[in-house]
Structure formats: C-alpha cells, structure tokens
Amino acid sequence: MDRSQVTGEPQIGEPATELDFAPPAQEDCACKEGMFPRASRRQFLRNGSLLTAAAAILPARAALAAEASSAASGALDPSWSVPGRLAKSDYGERAPFEKVMRLATIGGTSSLTPLQAGVGIITPSGLHFERHHNGIPAIDPRDHRLIIHGMVDRPMKYSVEDLKRFPSISRTIFIECSGNSNAASRSASQKTAQEAHGLTSTSEWTGVRLSTLMAQVGVKDGAAWVLAEGADGAMLSRSVPIDKIMDDAFVAYAQNGEAVRPENGYPMRLILPGWEGNINIKWLRRLKIGDKPFMTREETSKYSDLITLTGKARQFTWVMEAKSLITFPSGDMRLPGKGFYEISGLAWSGRAPIERVEITTDGGKSWNLASLQEPVLPKAHVRFRFPWTWDGSEAVIESRATDQTGYVQPTKSFLTRTEGVGPTYHYNGIQSWKISPDGSVTNVLNG
Amino acid sequence: MDRSQVTGEPQIGEPATELDFAPPAQEDCACKEGMFPRASRRQFLRNGSLLTAAAAILPARAALAAEASSAASGALDPSWSVPGRLAKSDYGERAPFEKVMRLATIGGTSSLTPLQAGVGIITPSGLHFERHHNGIPAIDPRDHRLIIHGMVDRPMKYSVEDLKRFPSISRTIFIECSGNSNAASRSASQKTAQEAHGLTSTSEWTGVRLSTLMAQVGVKDGAAWVLAEGADGAMLSRSVPIDKIMDDAFVAYAQNGEAVRPENGYPMRLILPGWEGNINIKWLRRLKIGDKPFMTREETSKYSDLITLTGKARQFTWVMEAKSLITFPSGDMRLPGKGFYEISGLAWSGRAPIERVEITTDGGKSWNLASLQEPVLPKAHVRFRFPWTWDGSEAVIESRATDQTGYVQPTKSFLTRTEGVGPTYHYNGIQSWKISPDGSVTNVLNG
User: Fold this and answer.
1) What is the DSSP string of A330-369?
2) pTM of the predicted protein model
3) Most buried by CB count within 10 Å: which residue of A180, A296, B391, B438?
4) How far is B397 from chain A (nearest CA, A)?
5) Best residue of A203, A256, A330, A346 to probe chain B, by most B CBs closer than 10 Å
6) In whole angstroms, what is the distance from residue A188 CA to residue A324 CA?
7) A263 and A387 housed in the same domain
C-alpha cells in the first residue's frame, strides 16, 4: 500500500491549478436538483465570471460557510458548492448515475452478478445473482410456515416470527450456482466476468441453526437424510445428509442486515455453507427427515455432473471447490494506457479457508502472491489485490487459488485431460484475460 | 446455541398436523402475482378440497414436480406451491411486505437507522443513517474532483476514476454521529432504539488510503493539519491532524460493494475510522494541508462538547468511546409471553476492539457475559447475543461494553456526576429497557 507500488511520479490525476477551484456551472442548478451539465460547466469556466455567478446562487447558510472557509484558508480556495435537495429518506437508493446491473440470462431463469464492478467482499443485495426454476414466488410472510416432519418425535411448524425467537447466528457466506462458469468451460466466447462467472455472490446471512431446530423436533434414531423443499412453483427439492444439517446448516431469514430478498428465498432460505447454490433451498417450506436420499428430480436428471470423458455422471457433488477470478482488469474493459494498475479479484472455496492466491501477468510463466483482504472468512468470497505496472505490451493475466486443504485451482487443460470437454457443473478452471497493446481486455483460452 | 438455551419442550412454533400440508388458497393467485389473502386461505382450509383445487392451478412443471415429490415422500407431503412471477431483475428490491424505514428527524436534517430491526453487523445501505447540513447534493461524478493542495510539493486533483486506479482497501467500519443519543442523555422520552440511538451504522467501505495520496502530492515539512471540505451547500469542513490522515484514513468511493450512496457522500467520502461522523466529510472535494487547525464553524460553534457541570466546552473530541445497546427486546416492542428470548444488540468503540459485553436482566444487580459474533472487527459494530428466559415478571435489561483499552461504558448517573446533565455530544451512557409483566418494553432511566 505504500507509494513504491505506484510507479513514477504522479501519473494518476492531474496537477491542480487556480482555475480548478472555480465552481462548476451554476446557472441551471436550482431547477435541476443541483446537477451540473458538463457542457455548461465548460462554458462557465471559459467565461470566467466566478464570484458573481457563485454569489448569486449560494443559499444563505452556504454563503456564510463560504465566507468563513475563505477567511480561514485563503483566496485560492474553492468558493462554489452544490445546493442540496432534502431527500425523502425512508429507504435510500443508489445515485441515478450508477447503472451497474444484473444481467438476465436467456429465458430469464437466472441473472448474473456484475463481478467486474464489485469491490470488497459484500455483494449488494440488489445485485446478488438469482436462479429460479419457476419464477419468484411472492410469499406473504404471515402465511408462510416451515414444516419439519418425518423421522422426528414432534412434527413442528414455524412461522418467520417463530424462527426469530431462537438463538441466531450471522455468517458471511458465498453462494455459487453449480452451473456457474459452465460456458467458460467450453469456450472464451463470453465477454465479461459477469457473463462468464456471475453466478456467485456473498452476503451476511442471519438465521437459526438447524441443529437448534432439530433438537426441538427430536430426530429419531436411524435418520440420515433430510429432504429440503421450496414453496416456489417448481417445489424445488434436494436431499441433504443429516451430518451437514447438524454441522453448520442454518435457516436464514435475513441477508445483509434486512429480510432475505424475494429472489433469494424470502421469507426464509436454507443455507448450507460452501455447497452448490441449488441445494441452498429458497422459499424453504419443508424439511422431511428420512433414512435415505429422496432422489428428487433436481439431483437425478439435473445437478449431477456428467463427465464427458467417461460418459458417467457424478452424483451428490455438493462442495464448491477452490476457485478464483480476476475482476479488474477483466473482459470488455479498456486500460487507458501503460502504468500502474491494481489487479483485483475474488477467491473462494466451499471446503476450507483460502490459503493463498497467486497472480501471473505473463500467461503462467511466473506467479506471485496477491494480498488477501482481512479478515479471510471461511466459505466467503475473499478479495485479493496485486500491484502491477503494465508496460504496454500484450499480457495474459490469471489468478490461482489454493485453500487450506492444499487443493489448487486447476487449469482448463488439466480439467479437459482428466474429465473431458465441458463439464456441465462445478467448473472451476483458471480464467485468463488478455490485455492487448491498445489496452483492450478480452477473454481468452490459455492452456 | 444448543437446545439447553431454549427452555422446556418446544414452546416456539406449533405442532404440525396433516392439515398443515394443505395449500394456501389458490383461487386468486394467478391474478395477484401469487399473493394469498389470509382470509381466503382460511376459507380454503375450511372447505378442505385440497387436491382438486391444487391440481387445477398448478403450472405444468410444478405439477410434474408435485407428482415426483409425492411419489418420493408420501401422501402427507404438501401438494401446493406458489406460482412465480419472472421478475425484472436488473437491480433487486426488498419484498413489498417489508416496511422497516429510516426515521427522519424534525427539519429533515438527519434520518435514523432502525437499529431494533437489524441483525448481524451490516447496515443495509438504504437504511444507513444520514445527517446533512444543507441537503444532499446531486453530484455528477464525471464533474467531481478531489483537490489536494496547501503545504504540498505537487497540488493535484483526482477524479473518481483516478482514485480507483490506486491501491485500494476495504474495511467494515461504524460511523456514529457525535450527536447520537443526545436526547437519551437527558430523558427516556424517546420510545425506540431507533429514536434514541439511530445515528450509528456499519458498512464495508472501499477506497484509497490517504497515506497513498499524500505520498503522491508530497507533504512538506511542518505540515500538521488537514482541512477536509465537502462539496455540499454547507461546504462542511473540519480540521484533521495529519497523524490520523497518515494512520488509517481513506477516501471511500464504495459502500457495501457498490458506489457510496448519495446521502453518504457520493461520489467520495472521507473515512476516519472510529471518529465522530461529522468529521468523516461527505461529498469530499478538497484536502488542504496546513500547519495548524483551520478552526472551521463545525469545530467552533458546533461539534465541541459543552460540559454543563463546568460550563466549559471540550474541543477536538474525535474518538467515539465504547458504547452498546440492546436492540432486541427494545422500546415499543411487546413480548408475546414468558419463555425463551435471545437478547441481542450492538457494541462498538472508536478506540479499540470490543473486549466484552455484559448483560444484566435485573437492573444492574448481576451481570453476565454475552457472546460476540465472530470475527470481532475493530471500529465496527459488533453483534452480541445472550440467551434469556423471561419469567414473566418486571425486568430491567441493560448492556455494558468494554473495549481492549479497559474502558468501560459508563452509567448515565456517572456521566451526570462527572459532566453534568445532558452532554450535547458523545453521550455513551448505558441504555435501560423495562419489560413489564404484560410484555411491553419501555425506555426507562435506571440510575
């Protein structure tokens, strides 16, 4: 983080001069809620009548502040300010200039997180990826119940308010669709990080441990599996081993400090930390305890992993293995010129905490350690950062994650050799981005 | 978190019976986006024609799923589901049933976070408290620049895009207005946690360290203070010692994974971790380096702490000392009856990490340790939890935070004895809530 990471004398930003302290154009501000058209600003700077115009529009309090500020800090100081609006502030919204969006896939059954625009580790709830098998049900929480039955002493049902009565936990957890990066396993045709890998997101989830609820209902001897079922039109259901249920599973009623969002399972969602998204059942309405897997559609015809090399399918592949992705710079961006850039991205593993992330800027010839944002949370996205000075020539950049089990994120060619072309689920091969001399960044295959 | 914390046999939730597996009323769902009126549901349960009605409305895919599910798990299983809508999902919104809101203060110069509805540690960006001195400026980020000048070798200006080029950091940080809990220092007239203490919130902030920018501009010998100034109509400005600037200060352009929200300083905000909200200058447009404090209005006539006992004012009281608050149960709630409750709340300190939080449920006669949500982040809200079985009699509950310096959150009576009645800023006395035998929770003074 020290200056040595930023090459040369100031090359980011511009020298400041007296003119920079001039106000932006003020003519139109009152009637446009304080927004300054760029053309108008330039025009204003040209005509140079700074003080007159500024004095004319400043509200009384601001004028006083300007006077005080000017007296304290000298004539070169800016004398302009941006008149405010008093916002209706019940529930804030982002600035109208911000246009970062989820991207719907064909058919509208999922939408992708704009990973290339992300920073830190929290995904804004409005940008958390979504995947639904029959649309998003609009559930009135007053009518919703979670039923727990099957091999239990006391079948029970719980409202959202009931769940909030129990001891609670909060954990920052990534959820990744097992079909994430599916197309990336076959080609480099998807342009952006969002298009290629956007089915993964991280939130702080809050809810009640399933071990707490299981103690309430009394699990019978011989119980080994739990059917989890959603209240959506698809009644999506999966079988979960009871060991996972008793280990770290919980039923979440909140996401990032407020109610779970509708597309993420409102009013309650099963969270199985580190396991594929599909089994984190949304709109959870039922848990049935049994002694064998329930063999639902979503774990037989779907969500089993066809290994094309052998023609056989793997079943019950729940854990999302270590994976990483450079989000800046990434596909469809254009670097403005050679010089300093901070390479940044996300790493995650459903099995164990991330141990390290390595970066190559020469297509894999050499690798260097990235720094990891602290604290490194288990089963959450981890932000990595790596200082890089681009010399303006073609470069291929990649990241490679290793988790605390020693598992190393594989290359695409390794996966192709061992599993065949294009696994349908759980693809976690290394992603390559090429930076061309003109600064354009593209998705490429590299070994 | 084990069952021993939940007293007695299942007393939360209801026993589940065959009837519970019936669908909610389906008659109106197609024309109401899948929402089920409660009255209609009850009526439906009365007439009991479950399978017929359900089969009539289930979409084809859901019917198949129902068949599969029914075959796998037996006749008692629910056969209903909630038809989905395909949402427009560019940027998600919360469920329409969720009505938790910020609360504007008189005059609209601030609005308060609904702490009593919060869980975990992240405050949703839409509910982060706000305080503005001349409204919220609508700034076009393309026109905005941060100017750094004064005692520097190279005066510079930076756009938002420039700032994003530098090495970045993300930190989860609380910001608390120094005027928070002002009224609570004088009386118990404010009903809720939000009304009494809602000017504090926590976000994951991302930006560039000021030490990085200061290395770029070259700070001259003798520099000791930095004037930080906002671009709002009030041109709010404060003086910051350069030691703090070089220690852990940063300029944030992002909050919870997306652009800083307009009411929190879009497009860039000064973050001084642990220091009073006012000095975390929003809409930051200028840093002027000097050799003495600039003595701005907001640190002379305002934001100095009048100690009523002596009639003197403290100046430059930046650090927010250790404080805590029970958010559940809290004022204006009503407990449904005796039994198990998880007492939960927030603790924070601007000086050092929280070491412990103690809870009393007998008005201060005895204290017990609460558990702290891991990881405990320095200068961030810390969620604490404490299992409690309410016996139905009157109880006064309080929390008391201690940070790693050994500082213990004081009682109101201690503050009154040492400082007088009603300090205007930096009030951090212990908050008491009384639970009456009818379950109602009220704000009370207790010593």
Assistant:
1) -TT-B--SSEEEEEEEEEE-SSS-EEEEEEESSTTS--EE
2) 0.88
3) A180
4) 17
5) A256
6) 16
7) no
Residue B285's SS3 state is strand
Nearest CA in chain A to B342: A167
Strand pairing partners for B348? Answer: B323
Strand partners, B149: B288
Which chain A residue lies closest to B150 (C-alpha atoms)?
A73
Residues of A in contact with B165 (CB under 8 A): 12, 340-342
- Type and span of the H or E element at A415: helix A412-419
Burial class (CB within 10 angstroms; exposed 0-12, middle 13-18, buried 19+) of A18: exposed
For A158, which residue in chain B has the nearest alpha carbon?
B13
What is the domain range of residue A62?
A: 20-83
d(CA B113, CA B103) in angstroms, rounded, equals: 7
Compute how many other C-beta atoms are within 10 angstroms of the C-beta atom of residue B107. 7
Contacts of A266 in chain B (CB under 8 A): 95
Same domain, B109 and B210: yes
- State how far the Cα of A195 lies from the Cα of B86, in Å rounded to an integer: 20
Express each pLDDT in A312-329 by its tens digit: 888 889 999 999 999 999
Shortest distance between the Cα of B421 and any Cα of chain A, in A, equals: 30
What are residue B376's phi and psi, to 5 degrees?
A: -80, 110
What's the pLDDT at A23? 46
Residues B332, B423 within the same domain:
yes
Record the tokens describing residue A352, joined without a space: 């164990």
* Cβ contact B212–A6 (<8 Å): yes
ipTM: 0.88
CA–CA separation, A92 and A87 (whole Å): 9
Which among B303, B181, B301, B198 is positioned nearest to B240, based on CA atoms? B303
3-state secondary structure of A83: coil
Chain A nearest C-alpha distance from B400 (Å):
20
Query: Is B140's CB within 8 Å of A12's CB?
Result: no
pLDDT for res A138: 87
Cα-flanking dihedrals φ and ψ of residue A214, to 5°? -65, -35
CB atoms within 10 A of CB A53: 18
Residue B1 inside a domain? The answer is: no
List phi, psi (to 5°) of A243: -60, -40
**Residue A95 in domain:** no
Residue A294 to residue A291: CA distance in whole angstroms: 9
- What are the pLDDT digits (tens) for B355-365? 999 999 999 99
A57 occurs within a structural domain: yes
Phi, psi dihedrals of residue B36, rounded to the nearest 5°: -110, 115
Collapse the DSSP code of A22 into the 3-class scheme (helix H, G, I; strand E, B; otherwise coil) and give the result.
coil
Report the residue of chain B nearest A115, measured CA to CA. Answer: B257
> Is there a single domain that holds both residue B297 and residue B329?
no
Number of separate domains in chain B = 3
Full strand arrangement of the beta sheet holding B371-372: B323-328, B339-348, B382-390, B371-372
Residues of chain A contacting B212 with CB distance shorter than 8 Å: 1-3, 6
What pLDDT score does B8 carry? 54
**Burial class (CB within 10 angstroms; exposed 0-12, middle 13-18, buried 19+) of A33:** middle
